[in-house]
Design brief:
Dihydrodipicolinate Reductase, domain 2, 2 domains, 9-stranded mixed sheet, 7-stranded mixed sheet, binds nicotinamide-adenine-dinucleotide
């Protein structure tokens, strides 16, 4: 790709998640020119400039704005920072990428989305599952005519004990924080496959109630505006430690697919290809998982979607539409989180929108 087609990026935030997962993707994305990095902490920003090849580093955002010509900003830190720094970048005419969640509430996330829209700019949100190899494959299968509409989904997402995220400004305890800080990925995922949610009915089993971290499980039914239905089992019971597991199933019209832990996919098609090898017309399954060495290299190659979400941002700046979540998607995922919380407290179904 020629130099003039690269976008000049300022990366704000050199914290633990971004340094471990996002910065290492930058050199794999030909559309990105990492011009500058910025963090309040000098040791972190110097380290990331050195390790990831940024030309210059700053500890003052305004100094970066005044000294650099940028095409976009990547902002990764706590949600409060996404809103505050995100708006300051938008004020300078820069489209933004912010990590998930874009805010700690639907209201805050919507405000950021509308702020960008009023300025004629866009923002994307780091829902990387949309860009992971398996979910991309699953999405293209569900878009095939033979699959039909996604009529039903099933999701199971589990990790270990979850914190209350008071440092984010959340006050309702770990079971609520889990919806906003973690399961929000899943709420974006179900919208990615089925569109807008109409109604939520959630039950919560809070095993430990008043602690700085907790264990609990949600059983949730969901219905979508297009008639699709689904169930979600989201829990923080799978400890000790932070071992995650994830399962997604989408049923179409007499066919279905499943994705396990973001790295394996089975498609149970109702068409029966290769009849010469299958004269009795038995069910056939298309299965995919990464080849072993590819799996070992999966972080570098963006199997989890971290590369894809950043590349999507750069491509959007270049005017190329992709599959990424925008700031309004970021808000709608939080709206689902809030509906689940409300339903779990009232023990009644909650309509959305
Ligand atoms: N997508 C995923 O899989 C995933 C996984 C874990 C965490 N996350 C998300 O990542 C985010 C946390 O990222 P992190 O661990 O890199 O954050 P962090 O809190 O470790 O680092 C944020 C950095 O931003 C800097 N900063 C704060 N305000 C600033 C300002 N005004 N100007 C310049 N720098 C400023 C801080 O000094 C800090 O070093 C959370 O939003 C979390 O939800 C996403």
């Amino acid at each position: 790709m020629s130099e003039e087609k690269r976008v000049r990026i300022g990366f704000v935030g050199c914290g633990s998640f971004s340094t471990g997962n996002l910065y290492p993707m930058i050199h794999l994305i030909p559309e990105i020119d990492l011009v500058a990095v910025c963090d309040l902490k000098e040791e972190l920003v110097k380290r990331n400039a050195r390790n990831f090849g940024a030309r210059r580093w700053y500890t003052d955002l305004d100094k970066m704005f005044s000294e650099e010509e940028l095409d976009g900003a990547i902002v990764v830190g706590l949600p409060k920072m996404h809103c505050e720094v995100g708006k300051r970048c938008l004020d300078k005419g820069l489209p933004i990428y912010v990590e998930k969640p874009s805010a700690i509430s639907y209201k805050g996330a919507l405000e950021l989305a509308e702020y960008a829209e009023e300025k004629g700019l866009f923002g994307t949100v780091g829902f990387m599952k949309r860009h992971s190899t398996c979910y991309r494959m699953a999405k293209s299968i569900t878009e095939k005519k033979e699959f039909g509409k996604v009529n039903e989904i099933e999701v199971r997402f589990a990790n270990g004990r979850y914190p209350d995220l008071k440092s984010w400004g959340l006050t309702e305890g770990p079971a609520n924080a889990f919806l906003i800080g973690q399961a929000v990925h899943i709420f974006d995922l179900i919208r990615f496959f089925c569109g807008e949610v109409e109604e939520i009915y959630a039950r919560l089993n809070e095993v430990e109630k008043i602690n700085s971290s907790g264990i609990f499980g949600y059983a949730i039914t969901v219905s979508f505006k297009n008639g699709a239905v689904g169930i979600m089992n989201l829990n923080a019971l799978q400890g000790p430690g932070f071992q995650m597991s994830e399962y997604f199933l989408a049923a179409g019209s007499e066919c279905w697919l499943e994705v396990k832990d973001m790295v394996s996919l089975n498609y149970y098609a109702h068409t029966k290809p290769m009849p010469e090898f299958n004269p009795e017309g038995r069910a056939q399954v298309f299965s995919w998982k990464p080849e072993f060495t590819e799996f070992l290299a999966s972080k570098a190659e963006g199997m989890m979607g971290y590369k894809g979400e950043l590349q999507n941002f750069a491509r959007k700046i270049l005017g190329k539409e992709e599959l990424g979540a925008n700031l309004f998607d970021g808000a709608k995922a939080l709206q689902i989180a809030e509906a689940i919380w409300e339903s779990s407290q009232s023990e009644k179904p909650v309509k959305i929108g």
